Amino acid sequence: MLGLAVLLLLVVASVSALLGAANLGWTRVVSEVWAQLTGGTSPLSATEAAIVWEVRVPRVVLAGLVGAALAVSGAAFQGVFRNPLADPYLLGAAAGAGMAATIVVVAAPQTTGWVVGPLPLAAFAGAIGGVSLTWLLGRSAGGGTAVLLLAGVAVASFLTAVQTFAQQLNTDTIKQVYSWMLGGLNTTGWSEVLVTLPYVGTAAVVLCVCARLLDVLAVGDDEAASLGINPARVRMVVLLAASLATAAAVAVSGLIGFVGIVVPHVVRLLAGASYRVVVPLSLVGGAVFLIVADHIARTAFAPAELPIGIITAFTGAPFFLLVLRMNRGQLR
């Protein structure tokens, strides 16, 4: 199953790189790729080649990274909290990123010469800060998954209030903030990919290694402890890794919903409930899902571009309602 998923990912990524808003002709793009591999003559002009290698390909890679991060984080959160409604933004990552991004848009001066713009850096710091604040608040209140969930709700509400206050200080920036919150992958090259890859890669490795332990936690903490596993330590490691992946994704893409809920559910329907299968397949499936969604967003109304969050909501919300109906007995 994993091999088929990887094959599908390669096909989807290739098609998305070959086709785009700029009508270069897919056969000419294939010839360009072949020319790069063999040292031959490309049929594309320098500008057209730049569109392929500096716009399309890095955007496809970035979409795959963000989708993989959100989906595998969703699967991890659902395993830790034993709740199929758990979401990558559960612990305040989205609220922290949104608050930090809003503050940068409203207050930060124009900055040039940065490897990565100040907005994604602030969003990353805000997402990590939101999760850290939730963790500290949950620990101070006694720990436990239920307490941590409640702490996440409280922190998200507070940070959202701060964000709204910051917006009201400068209403001229509301459109820019709103566009960021709807999600997008407006990369200008490989810089966003290079910044995101280490965080997503590290988190993905940790979560895949911990997938077997999530299966053990599913049978109960007492049974896990009897097998020599420390449930609290496993949860902490998984939450940290999933939050790191979420923060990295939010920092470069804004807020993109439903990926972390829908993809793990689809994987469970197709391949079963074992996290040894769900986690790696969610990683690949999330990449496939977001590459397809981003391709639709940038080509459906070309040259205009839709926020990718709208595409994921249009496709994810009806499917999520269907999943709720199919599993309503298990959610009570």
Automatic annotation (TrEMBL):
GO terms for molecular function: transmembrane transporter activity. The keyword Transmembrane helix applies. It comes from the Bacteria. The chain crosses the membrane at residues 60-77, 89-108, 114-138, 145-166, 236-263, 275-293, 305-324. Its main location: membrane. It is a multi-pass membrane protein. Keywords: Cell membrane, Membrane, Transmembrane, Transmembrane helix, Transport. Pfam families: FecCD (PF01032). Signal peptide: none annotated. It is found in: Cell membrane. The keyword Transport applies. InterPro entries: ABC_BtuC-like, ABC_transptr_permease_BtuC. One of its GO terms (cellular component) is plasma membrane. Gene3D superfamilies: ABC transporter involved in vitamin B12 uptake, BtuC (1.10.3470.10). GO terms for biological process: siderophore-iron import into cell. Belongs to the binding-protein-dependent transport system permease family. FecCD subfamily. This is Iron complex transport system permease protein.
